[in-house]
Amino acid sequence: MNFNDIFTKTFREGFAGVELGFLEMMLVYALAVCVGGYIFLVYRFVTKQAFYSKHFNISLAVLPVIVAAIILAIQSSIVISLGMVGALSIVRFRTAVKDPIDLTFLFWSISAGILCGAGLGEMAVIVSLIITAMIIALDNVRIAKAPLLLVLNLENPDAEDDLLKIVTEYCKYSKVKSRNLTKEKLHLIIELRTDKGKELVKELSAKEGIFSITLMEHDGEAVC
């Protein structure tokens, strides 16, 4: 027996098929279904998207079952495992993930399926609980609201100083971020923090020389 024969025998023995009974497979699938349902509920609870994607959430719930089935198929035969690698190599996930938290849930769902299919159900449950605790804890970390943006279009550029005094009275913080002057108008963008936005806009609108006033919020977050 030469080296090639020894290597081939060892390789085949190391990847010998794992025979699983019907009951064992059903237990694996049941655990994958439970973990997938748990991920579905957690994602629905913690998501902060303006447009909740139910189809994406359903995909998260189904993925553990699919991945667990693939892992079981790979364990059953080396021939199937090699064929599975070739088949999955042509799959491309081209859907854009808009929120990084979606990518986290996607990897969580796939990992849970791998653990369930590999017979590590306890680890899948423990990891799921740890991930849930981390997401909830980090999501409740105190954050400050992002500054507001006040956009002013002035017909009289000389009125800028008076208007900035009014802004200072109502705001804890204010800073001119942009100043665009044309022949007829002055366009100002002011970053500010205030809890009296309604009163500020009302007083500014009573002043002469203002063509338009816009007070905007944006989606950014600033850590305290």
Poorly predicted residue ranges: none
Number of helices: 8
**Spatial strand arrangement across the major sheet:** 3-4-2-5
Strand content: 15-25%
The rough form would be described as elongated
- Note the gap between the termini: 70 Å
Tell me the series of helices and strands, N- to C-terminal: HHHHHHEEHEEHEE
Instruction: Give the oligomeric state of the chains in this entry, treating copies of one chain as homo and distinct chains as hetero.
Output: single chain
> Which structural class matches the secondary elements?
alpha+beta
DSSP, total strands: 6
Helix percent reads 55-70%
Radius of gyration: 29 Å
Main sheet makeup = 4 strands, antiparallel
Q: What is the typical, i.e. mean, pLDDT?
A: 78
Structural account:
57% of the residues lie in helices and 17% in strands. A hairpin with a 4-residue loop joins strand 3 and strand 4 (186-193). The model has no long low-confidence stretch (mean pLDDT 78). Helix 2 packs parallel to helix 6 (121-139), helix 5 runs antiparallel to helix 6 and helix 7 (160-170) packs antiparallel against helix 8. The chain is of the alpha+beta class. The protein has helices at residues 3-14, 22-46, 54-76, 78-88, 100-117, 121-139, 160-170, 197-205; strands spanning 143-145, 148-154, 173-181, 186-193, 210-216, 221-223. The strands form two sheets. Strands 3-4-2-5 form a four-stranded antiparallel β-sheet, covered by helices on one side. It is elongated. The chain contains eight helices and six strands.
